[in-house]
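protien #1 (seq + structre)
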Amino acid sequence: MSGKTGRSTIAGPIERAFLLLQAVAASDDPVGIRELGRQTGLPRSTVSRLVATLVDLGMVSRTGDGAVVAGAGVASLQPRRGPMHASLEDRLRPLLFDLVERFGESAALTIDTPGGAHYLSQVPGHGAVHVPDATGESFAFHTVAPGLVLMAAWDDARLDDYLSHPLESPTGLTVSDPTHLRALVEEVALTGTAWADQALDLEVAGLAVPAIADDDTVVAAISLYGPAYRLNAVDRPNLASDLREVVDKRMAILLA
């Protein structure tokens, strides 16, 4: 892509976002904000704002020097051999309904993005007491059960980098001490399950397990969450193993 070629006349935010995606995807090397502005004809302030949103969505990511590269989410926009496969959300959402029917709590699908643990989809539970719908929101990985599951799949370098930064503590029950959090992530990696007891919101608890593809990569986290008084390991000691068993059995079919 070269020059401005009148592209600054594109006014809509969706069109501008896709214009930026095209510029990033077309480049073999990381692209700086200034260069993206030059290629697209968009003001630098607009480029910076849209790039920040695209980072949160996992469509692009930043390198150590602030340049932009295509993110994992871009792959979902590209056709493969034959018809385009359904999105991850479409393929796993039926599982969420099954989990709600089986366990009675809200079920959610969460993915790993540079902006945090991003909730792609949620199916509300049937109970009289519900927790807020988190669909479309991203949270610090260590504050939610699916985030802990996703962290357990990281390599040492990424985990070390995450733990080197100040970690927020939304509640007094959030595990934010780097040493304790590292130990917790190691435990999650061993057990394949993660509990988060009121770590993000008081009175709300979550339980998550990994969604593992055929090549043993963690593609997402599947979680249950609801009021802490009824969703906890003390009152439901078999829930973690039961959830892991159901998800493991269904993944081979859903991701085939």
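ok now protien #2
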Amino acid sequence: MRRVLIANRGEIAIRIARACREAGLESVAVYSDADRGAPHVAAADVAVHVGPSPARESYLVVDKLLAAARTSSADAVHPGYGFLSENAAFARAVVDAGLTWVGPPPDAIATMGDKLGARATVAKAGVPLVPGTELAAGDAATARRRAASLGYPILVKAAAGGGGKGMRTVASEADLDAALAAAAREAESAFGDGRVYLEKLLVRPRHVEVQVLADGRGTVIHLGERECSIQRRHQKIVEETPCPAVTPRLRQEMTDAALAAARAVDYASAGTIEFLLDQDGRFYFLEMNTRIQVEHPITELVTGVDLVGWQLRIAAGERLTLRQEDVVARGHAIEARLYAEDPAQSFFPSAAPILAFREPAGPGIRVDAGVVSGTVVPVDYDPMLAKISAWGPDRAAAIARLRRALADTVVLGPVTNLAFLGDVLAHPAFVDGATHTGFLPEHLPRWTPAGGDAAVAAIAAALALARGGAATAAADGGPAAPPTPWESLGAWRLGGRA
């Protein structure tokens, strides 16, 4: 491997470009019309335009990505996460084109990408499953009978894909037919596969996942677990490691199950096995993500293992020299995902120019950002701006550091979830570690920002705009620009804390 095309955008593309540089590899960025001036373009050694702004016309077009690899003389492809990262057909196309695929074998992606196939595969390996059943399309009578045997409430889930799409909660038989139809339509639209199945809905479970690393030559290790229970619309926004509810014995059982699941598909590269942990300490297989995870930074913070670096090394044919006893977790780490969205308006995305962006800094703080001041948040993609992570010697210290980091973060322009994240971390139930997948609807169902934030944001935005005009005048010999917005605001922060 000499030059790696990164088939992605945003912060993960920047993260991969940095890993390539550290490994002595060149990197190639791809970009759409909306991303011409995006930071990930500047982070790579070479950049290739792949089409219009909509992802279906650019980042999701296999032929355009392969053409970009040929044009740039790339000899490998790293998919990051999202987009085509778990698309087995894309992985096969990369391999068939004579390029190195930085990820697991296409067959492993295909098996674990189909939830029904994944359930069958890991069940043979002895991994416990959430009670559920597959369905034949259009067989409403069988669906009602099997739902009754599982017992309400249940989930209708898409057989392919993830991210909460094609999923419906059903409280009673009266709601089943409509939920089946709606989930199938959404799954067909999102994944091109309308198959759905039924799964018992666990009450107040934790979402706990195990990070694994394998070299495809028989060595498979784990790097501990992460808890990802703080979710909105089935998508994570706060993750931490280790999980406060996992005992040493339970950790051994869960990691053993995760390793068995990875071995069942002859896995290679980084991957994550996700479980639901019920209130009685029983865990059940949920799915496997055959890619690098959004939340991988916190595992890197507590273990010191470079997961993306190892993805590149394994793809290049290196054996995994790490042994299980070499992996030692130290301290606690928490990640918060910063989104351009309005938590007070059902997390509605906020596409707007970023007038100013200031990252936090300090001991134990890590920021993986995909934006800078001047970036325009596009309407075409996921509105995540950055991931802010904090490490501490214990959980309380990590929480305190992350709260301070969020309070020190400045984003002017789009509405963000910055204040909301601060309130999640400050909530007594979160501080006590009493988290579950229904945490947000239970504890913050009608959240609104502190009263002064909107006024402060408006004043800061006006100052930023005024400074921009003054800077232009100064360049022409006019008066100098006034102080920056954060210099003018004193101790006020958009995170809602002084």
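The chain has 17 helices and 21 strands.
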